[in-house]
Amino acid sequence: MGIVSPGFSGRRRGGAPDLPPGQYLTEDFPVLSAGPTPHVPKESWNLTVTTETGTAHHWDWAGLTALPAERFTVDLHCVTKWSKLATAWEGISLDTLLAGVETSAEYALAHSYGGYTTNLPLEDLLDGQAWIAVRYDGEDLTPEHGGPARLLVPHLYLWKSAKWVSAIRLLNEDHPGFWESVGYHNYGDPWREQRYWGD
Fold first, then answer.
1. Are 167 and 48 in contact (CB under 8 A)?
2. DSSP tag of 128
3. What is the C-alpha to C-alpha distance for residues 53 and 170, in angstroms, rounded to an integer?
4. Which residues are paired to 25 by β-bridges?
5. Cα four-point dihedral sign 59, 61, 66, 68
6. Which stretches within 66-158 are classed as H helix?
7. Which residues in the chain belong to E strands, given as ranges?
8. What does pTM read for this prediction?
9. Do residues 119 and 187 make contact, with C-beta atoms less than 8 angstroms apart?
C-alpha cells in the first residue's frame, strides 16, 4: 500500500506565503515571555529615552498618545519558528518619538517593566522600521502582548520587540540584552536565520 494518495503533490508553492527559512505559519498569536507578565496601569506608565550624554526625555501616557499615530500592517517572526502574517497595529513611529532627541549614538538598549532588555542598532529603529505600539487588531494592547505599550521592530525576530517598554538608552557602544547575553544572536534577522551565536 502506498503512503501517498494518488494525485497528491504536496503543498502548492505558488500560493504559499513567503516565510523566512525554518518558519511555519500560525493563525493564532502565541504568548511567550521571559518572566511574569507586568500589569502597568496607563496612569503610571512612563517611557524614558536617555541619550549617550545622559539627557533624558520623558513621555507619560497622555504625552505619548498625543503624538501622531500610524496604523500599519506587518508580518511577525518568532525565534521559536512561528510566523504570523499581516498583523494590524497602531502606534507611534520611533522617527516621530526621536525627532526632538539629539544624539550621535549608534546603538540602543530597550528596557521593559519587569527587567527585560534587548539591544539593537539605532538605525534599525528609524526610517519607518519601528514603533511604540499601543493597539493591536483595533483594540488596546493587552498585557499578554506587551500592553499598554511595546516596542515593535518587525523586520527582526520578535524577541527584539520588547514588551512593556519603559526606557530606551542610546549608546555609543553595543551592550547585549537579556537573551543576547545567554546565546541568542546579537542582531536576529529572520531571513538569515540568525537565531543563536554563530548563525
1. yes
2. S
3. 9
4. 83
5. positive
6. 94-97
7. 24-25, 46-50, 56-60, 70-77, 82-93, 107-112, 117-121, 131-136, 139-140, 150-152, 165-171
8. 0.89
9. no
Return d(Cα 189, Cα 186) in angstroms, integer.
9
pLDDT in tens, 4-38: 333 333 333 344 578 999 999 999 888 877 778 88
Reported as a single tens digit per residue, the pLDDT across 59-110 is 999 999 999 999 999 999 999 999 999 999 999 999 999 999 999 999 999 9
Handedness of CA 12, 16, 19, 22 (dihedral sign): negative
C-alpha to C-alpha distance for 49 and 132, rounded to whole angstroms: 12
Measured between alpha carbons, how far apart are the two ends of the chain, in Å?
42
